[in-house]
Design brief:
The protein is of the alpha/beta class. The protein is built from six helices and five strands, in the order H-H-E-E-H-H-E-H-E-H-E. A three-stranded parallel sheet has the order 3-4-5, covered by helices on one side. It has a two-stranded antiparallel sheet with strand order 1-2. Strand 4, helix 6 and strand 5 form a beta-alpha-beta unit. It is globular, with a radius of gyration of 16 Å. The termini are far apart.
């Protein structure tokens, strides 16, 4: 399967066929105006829309994170990690996930929804991407955004 087709399929799974077509059309027409999207992901309900820049890398990242679910763990491993995080929280230990290269927050949102007991630290150096990261993750109290580079 070609990378383009794979990303298109990921966008369709993440946002539905209509919104995926709109994202692709805006990208093809070089319409860079940010747009609102609602990802189909467990744990994210009744939230404000996420902001996507159709001519940047955002559609590819969203496709990978929300549509293709590249971070998805096997259920048994996920369950063990959730239980471990919960047991740490019960002992006042904060489980931490570091998202080094937070971009606009899509992966941080995925981790925050999947592991609600954890604190997700999203690190992003680019000012424009960081501003969108702050905006996209503002409904998630367990995400801490830091404008910096990881090295």
């Amino acid at each position: 399967m070609s990378k383009r087709y794979q990303h298109l399929k990921g966008l369709q799974r993440a946002f539905g066929a209509y919104k995926a077509a709109e994202i692709i059309a805006r990208r093809a027409l070089k319409l860079s105006e940010p747009m609102a999207v609602f990802p189909n992901i467990a744990g994210i309900k009744n939230r404000k829309p996420l902001i996507m820049r159709p001519t940047e890398s955002d559609p590819f990242v969203a496709s990978q994170v929300f549509g293709l679910q590249e971070y998805k763990l096997p259920e048994l491993i996920k369950e063990k990690l959730v239980n471990l995080a919960r047991s740490w929280r019960n002992r006042s230990i904060a489980p931490i996930i570091v998202d080094g290269g937070g971009n606009t927050g899509y992966s941080a949102i995925y981790f925050a929804a999947t592991f609600p007991e954890a604190i997700v630290i999203a690190i992003e150096p680019n000012t424009t991407s960081f501003e969108l990261l702050l905006r996209n993750t503002s409904d998630f109290p367990n995400i801490l955004a830091i404008q910096a580079a990881l090295w």
